[in-house]
Amino acid sequence: MTQEVIEETADGIEKFITSLMVATSNCSLYTKEHESFDELAKRTHVNLVKILLEKLDIMILDNELIINKIPIRDSGIHNKNFINRLKRKGVSRINIDRGVSIPEIRQMIIELAHSGKELKNLPHIQFGSVDVNMLASEQNDDRDAYSASKGLDTVKDIIQSASPFKKLNVLGIEEVVLNFITTFKREASILKFLSPVKTFDEYTYTHATNVAVLSVFQAQSLGLSDEILHEIGVAGLLHDAGKMFISKEILDKKGKLTQEEFAEIQNHTLHGARYLIKIESLPRIAPVVAFEHHMKYDGSGYPRLLLNSNQQKQQIYSQIVAISDFFDALRSNRPYRKGMDTTTS
Ligand SMILES: [Fe+2]
Ligand SMILES: [Fe+2]
Question: What are phi and psi of 242, to 5 degrees?
Answer without folding.
Answer: -65, -15
